Amino acid sequence: MRIGIGYDIHRLVEDRKLFLGGIEIPYLKGLLGYSDGDVLLHAISDAMLGALSLGDIGQHFPNTDPKYKDIESSRILRKTAELIAQKGYIINNIDTVILAEDPKVYPYKEGMIESISRTLGIDKTKISIKATTNEGVGSMGRGEAIAAYAVVLLKEK
Q1: Is residue 31 left, alpha or beta, with left meaning phi > 0 and alpha meaning psi from -120 to 50?
Q2: pLDDT, tens digit, for every residue of 51-81?
Q3: pLDDT tens digits, 101-145
Q4: Residue 67 to residue 146: CA distance in whole angstroms
Q5: Phi first, then psi: what are they for 27, rounded to 5°?
Q6: Which CATH number applies to 2-156: 1.20.120.1460, 3.30.1330.50, 3.40.50.2300, 3.40.50.720?
Q7: Which of these, 87, 96, 108, 122, has the minimum number of CB atoms within 10 Å of its CB?
């Protein structure tokens, strides 16, 4: 068994769509990033890579490479899962936390779980998504950013 932790944060900006957990969430702002900015999928991908000491998504999907400009983060997650499988591991479970003052993510939780389940080809019962606010503290508390943490447990096939 191998365990990894991932974290990501992006600023909220106007004129961008908001993607979290592989789905679009209707909101006035979106996450600024070289890709679609999906902090939840980035945190999960980093946790998977970290579990096997394979670096991070910046190494595998650099923001200096034009082919990754505006890439859907679900493609990053899928390619990361393929790499994990090549190394002889499967996902045992994923536990995540989204930090967002607004929008409220609870109504979209099941859709995110379904999307991640489909992308990774794992059962929905292996995926946990929790959300909390930052109680008005810092950039997240002021509604300037959204962050996510992920812990992934991998096991050998």
Answers
A1: beta
A2: 999 999 999 999 999 999 999 999 999 999 9
A3: 999 999 999 999 999 999 999 999 999 999 999 999 988 899 999
A4: 25
A5: -165, 160
A6: 3.30.1330.50
A7: 87
